Amino acid sequence: MKYYPIYLDIRDKPCVVIGGGDVAERKVLSLLNAGAKVTVVSPEVTEVLKGVSEDGRVEIKDRFYQEGDLKGAFIAYAATDDEDTNRKIAEEAHTCGVLLNIVDKPEMCDFIVPSVVERGLLSIAISTSGASPAFAKRLRLEMEERYGEEYAQFLEIMAAIRQKLLTKEADGVKKRKFFNELASSSIPEMVKAGRWEEVDRTIISLLGEDFSIASLGIMKA
Questions:
Q1: In contact, 44 and 64? CB cutoff 8 Å
Q2: Rounded Cα gap, residues 147 and 99, in angstroms
Q3: What is the dihedral of CA 14, 19, 24, 25, to 10 degrees?
Q4: Measured in whole angstroms, how far is the alpha carbon of residue 155 from the centre of its chain?
Q5: What phi and psi, each to the nearest 5 degrees, are found at residue 126?
Q6: pLDDT score at 172
């Protein structure tokens, strides 16, 4: 099956997780990391889920799933081992138009979750369309080796430059030239090696003194 790759903005959107075990915990934490408003439905939850509930980041309904629990949800996860419950959740989701992921049941899902490498603003999603999660994991580990924390710092620099450059009066062609040259530069390797003076020289040579690391407000790692 071929899936349509997409990144969703779920900030402040209501999301529901049915289940309270380790798998549900991972789903909840990833949703919180993206800024979602999360409700967990389960009579038992992990200690971590209790903690995020106590600090007000998650609402927990201390009971089993009931019809109506998905009302108003943007997306939902079912992380239960009960086939009958999963079927009922899927029926409600399809009736309400809620995007649903049932863990380890791709044939019942509206979407599947890729393996993800995150380095600050950099997010690399890897999927085998359900053919081999193990191979997706292998690729993720390879990507984690290839793209280290220096890329998080690099994109922080690029974001600061972009924000500042877009306020300057310059034609679009010239701006694109700057962005392309910076994107193809060796700045990530310089950051990794701690060669910040070289980073500064590279940026200043293209954009001028106003774009030094200090003027951009970048904290060196």
A1: no
A2: 31
A3: 90
A4: 15
A5: -125, 130
A6: 74
**What tokens were used for 136?**
């997706």
| pLDDT > 90 in the chain, percent | 81
Contact status, residue 127 vs residue 136, Cβ threshold 8 Å: yes
Q: Which amino acid is at 11?
A: R
Q: Which residues of the chain have pLDDT under 70?
A: 1, 169-170
Contacts of 205-213 with CB under 8 Å at 24 or more apart are 206/178, 206/181, 206/182, 207/161, 207/165, 207/178, 210/164, 211/161, 211/164, 211/165, 213/157
* pTM for this prediction: 0.84
In whole angstroms, how large is the CA radius of gyration of the chain? Answer: 22
Residue that the structure tokens 């049932």 belong to: 102
Burial of 195 (0-12, 13-18, 19+ CB in 10 A): middle
Place of tokens 């999603």: 125
CA-to-CA dists, residue 61 to 26, 52, 69, 180, angstroms: 18, 13, 10, 50
Cα(186)–Cα(150) distance, integer angstroms:
11
pLDDT for 136-187, tens place per residue?
999 999 999 999 999 999 999 999 999 988 887 667 777 888 889 999 999 9
Closest CA to 147 of 126, 128, 123, 127: 123
- 75, two tokens: 């997306």
